[in-house]
Write a structure and sequence with these properties.
Helix 1 crosses helix 3, helix 1 packs across helix 6 and helix 5 packs parallel to helix 7. The protein has 8 helices and no strands. Involved in transcription antitermination. Required for transcription of ribosomal RNA (rRNA) genes. Binds specifically to the boxA antiterminator sequence of the ribosomal RNA (rrn) operons. One of its GO terms (molecular function) is RNA binding. One of its GO terms (cellular component) is cytosol.
Length: about 150
């Protein structure tokens, strides 16, 4: 968020709903070729401001700031898949999942993976949950080593 802007925030939003909303914002930004934080800022700063939870904001900002490193990890661990070949929604789910695995200290690794799989079940194809689980599982298995060098 830009300085001076106060987003409209949802008080009782569940973390799963926040994750889902973050994926939707990242997906929309990718489809429109715009910066996700700018899109989010425009949304919560408009006169018809939507309610966006603090955690959604944290996820969108975190993924955006660390996107280059997140994408490097995804390229390395998505065996046989380039980012360009992945469905855009799966890529958004994976980016949020990697962010939570490596930078969200209050989210245990199994929870980050399980939540990403759950969001993939809600938003993507029948094959996506298994794909997301596999990629995040590989990254999760070395998460401690990765966190040590981040």
């Amino acid at each position: 968020m830009s300085p001076g802007r106060t987003p409209t925030r949802g008080g009782g939003t569940s973390r799963r709903a926040s994750r889902r909303r973050a994926v939707e914002i990242l997906y929309e930004a990718a489809q429109r070729s715009v910066d996700a934080v700018t899109l989010l800022s425009d949304r919560v700063g408009s006169t018809d401001a939507e309610v966006v939870s603090d955690y959604t904001i944290t996820l969108v900002e975190g993924v955006t700031v660390r996107r280059e490193r997140i994408d490097e990890l995804l390229e390395e661990h998505a065996q046989g898949w380039s980012l360009d070949r992945m469905p855009v929604v799966d890529l958004a789910v994976l980016r949020v999942g990697v962010y939570e695995l490596l930078w969200a200290a209050d989210v245990p690794d199994p929870v980050a993976i399980d939540e990403a799989v759950g969001v993939a079940k809600e938003l993507s194809t029948d094959d996506s949950p298994r794909f997301v689980n596999g990629v995040l599982g590989r990254i999760g298995s070395i998460a401690d080593r990765l966190r040590a060098v981040l």
